[in-house]
Amino acid sequence: MTSTFDHKAMDRRRFLFAALGGGGLLALGGLSAERLFGNKGNGVMAAATGTAAPAQDLLLECFADDDGHHLGTCQVRKLVLSDAQWHQRLSDEAFNVMRRAGTEMAFSGPHEKPNSKGLYRCVGCDTALFNGATQFDSGTGWPSFWQPIAKKNVIETSDTSFGMVRTAVSCAGCDSHLGHVFDDGPAPTGLRYCMNSVALRFVAFRVS
Questions:
Q1: 13: part of which helix (H) or strand (E)?
Q2: Using an 8 Å Cβ cutoff, are 159 and 178 in contact?
Q3: Quick one: the chain helix, strand, coil %, rounded to 5?
Q4: Considering 122, 125, 171, 194, which one is annotated as catalytic?
Q5: One digit per residue, pLDDT tens: the chain, 208 residues?
Q6: Sheet of strand 128-131, all strands in order from the earlier edge strand to the far edge
Q7: CA 13 distance to own-chain centroid
């Protein structure tokens, strides 16, 4: 007997093969075919840095750009780059925040809730991080959300810097620092994911 899960997995495989058959670079939920299937991704990185980093596959939740619907769990290759490669990929401010755990100046980036529906992706690796529907104006000057789009897509760790005990939030797809989470947010979670604008890329839904 074929389970419901098997049908869904088969449908996803059909979608992937159909997209690949059309030629060009597959972008599923913002993830390239190379990251999705791990095709020599670490070999490219090793050649550029001169180090043989071990392959590391992740199971993350993928979401479509057109309307944000959940595409299911996808196996992707963690993005591992040298500092020089990160410098090429990110702006100086984004590098300081994402790779050096810095903090952008309050009110320096787009922090108000956008007028259009959409989701936020990691600037570093395009992992889906937050749905705009969970964003609220915290008055702090940083984008704030009451939950991530998927717990699996973020990593929370203890941060004891500056004599404080906080919970730091980073992207599971590339280990880039995003911000911190606090327990002074609104219902239904009571949490405030306080993120840095330079670490996020907003993608407006193409289908309303």
A1: helix 4-21
A2: no
A3: 30, 30, 45
A4: 194
A5: 433 334 344 344 433 433 333 333 333 445 554 455 444 343 333 333 445 356 489 999 999 999 999 999 999 999 999 999 999 999 999 999 999 999 999 999 988 788 889 999 999 999 999 999 999 999 999 999 999 999 999 999 999 998 999 999 999 999 999 999 999 999 999 999 999 999 999 999 997 6
A6: 128-131, 118-122, 200-204
A7: 23
Q: For the sheet containing 166-171, what is the strand order?
A: 135-136, 144-145, 192-195, 177-182, 166-171, 154-159
Whole-prediction pTM value? 0.76
Residue 62: active-site member:
no
Residue 107: count other Cβ atoms within 10 Å of its Cβ. Answer: 12
Our measurement of the distance from residue 27's CA atom to the centroid of its chain's CA atoms, rounded to an integer in Å, reads 14
Tokens representing residue 181 in the block:
């989470």
For residue 169, what are its two tokens?
A: 């939030």
